[in-house]
Inverse folding.
């Protein structure tokens, strides 16, 4: 591990827990959005990464959505937060139990506005109840339909059915995003060379109706020509 990688690791830990602590002090959605964005901008700035949005005219300025994205890197959530920075869209991230219990991310994830997904539970009633409550309060829901990071050479992994079910149960239009740049490669390059300036491109796709019965993965591939 390079010196820069070690430096970034410790600074990332500081940022995550510093913002995580501040998030424990508020229940206000606007303040949580501000803090989440502040964390995301600081994290990407120290890595010398900027975000470019394609098809920005398709990006809504407000409203409730199921926001879906492909998932290659641990910096994907900050990328999504930054590309939404000029909108009024705020929502809860679907987060795995591993993130809730993580020494690195736990404090932040538990307090930033997220819904715990515990795949070890046989009953998912409380999970869907938490989603319904947040949607009722005006929040969007953010999810990576692949369920975990895609570590293959394929553009996307197999989508889980849970994302479509969330949209259907809550009558949420689906806003598809595609992180066109391999953010994992970008992160690795940033850890090797602190002076390297890089750009991540995110593409906004046309909204998908929750009533559409076509498999979500199929629609997503069609939207982005994958």
């Amino acid at each position: 591990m390079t010196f820069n990688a070690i430096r970034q690791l410790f600074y990332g830990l500081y940022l995550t827990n510093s913002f995580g602590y501040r998030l424990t002090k508020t229940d206000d959605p606007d303040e949580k959005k501000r803090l989440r964005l502040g964390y995301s901008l600081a994290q990407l700035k120290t890595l010398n990464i900027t975000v470019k949005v394609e098809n920005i005219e398709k990006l809504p300025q407000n409203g409730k959505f199921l926001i879906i994205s492909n998932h290659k890197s641990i910096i994907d959530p900050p990328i999504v937060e930054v590309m939404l920075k000029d909108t009024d869209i705020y929502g809860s991230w679907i987060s795995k139990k591993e993130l809730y219990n993580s020494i690195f991310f736990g404090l932040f994830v538990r307090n930033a506005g997220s819904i715990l997904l515990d795949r070890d539970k046989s009953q998912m009633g409380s999970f869907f109840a938490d989603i319904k409550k947040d949607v009722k309060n005006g929040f969007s829901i953010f999810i990576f339909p692949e369920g975990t990071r895609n570590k293959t050479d394929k553009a996307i992994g197999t989508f889980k059915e849970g994302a479509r079910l969330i949209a259907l149960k809550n009558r949420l239009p689906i806003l598809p995003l595609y992180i066109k740049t391999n953010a994992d490669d970008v992160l690795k390059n940033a850890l090797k060379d602190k002076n390297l300036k890089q750009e991540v491109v995110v593409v906004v796709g046309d909204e998908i109706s929750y009533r559409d019965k076509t498999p979500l993965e199929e629609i997503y591939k069609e939207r982005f020509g994958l």
Summary: The chain has a mean pLDDT of 94.
